[in-house]
Amino acid sequence: MDLILDGILKAFNLLFSLDREVFAITLLSLQISGLATMISLVLGISLGTAVALADFPGRKLVVSLINAGMALPPVVVGLFVTIFLWRNGPFGFMGLLYTPTGMIIAQAIIATPIVAGITLAAMQNLPKKLRLQILALGATRFQMLWILMREARLPLLAAVMAGFGGVISEIGASIMVGGNIKGYSRVLTTATVMETSRGNFDMAIALGIILLLFVFLINLVLTLIQQRERPR
Question: What angle do CA 120, 225, 100 make, to 5 degrees?
């Protein structure tokens, strides 16, 4: 119990003292996970919407693959991204291994199926005849898609929260692809693992609390947007 209390006190001390290293690690965590989430939203919402609204042979197989991808193990993603970005790999010439950019790629791959799966379910849950009604009123296909997304905005915001939560707390792919390099690719999750392995439990607890605090604050903002009362 004393160890946990020491960690909590250290966490608030690090926050209020604006420790330079912790501030840099926290900022990098938010930048990497934020960009990865944005990429996954573009890809995931597009994919989920397209599959939900289209009718083509093998559609059930594609849906199954998307749903399976929602449970994609981060370490497996980290393994394959590392292989592809390795100096002898297909994209080794780009020099992205052990860089923040490589971490963004890995995290985007993890988050995209999560966003796509929730988007797919949200779009399928809309009334089937709603599309036809919107088009019958003279809307273009782009306007139809925009209206459908507005109707499904609550679960789509849940997709944002799920995607961001899946990458900000991810450790396996981040440490494999990023390398946990001090001042360059070290984020809150990898720093927490490193401090734990060193036996610096108070520091590890402090970093964990800072991570939880930022996750809570970001999800609080998204939840307030999601749950605000609709005009009657």
Answer: 70
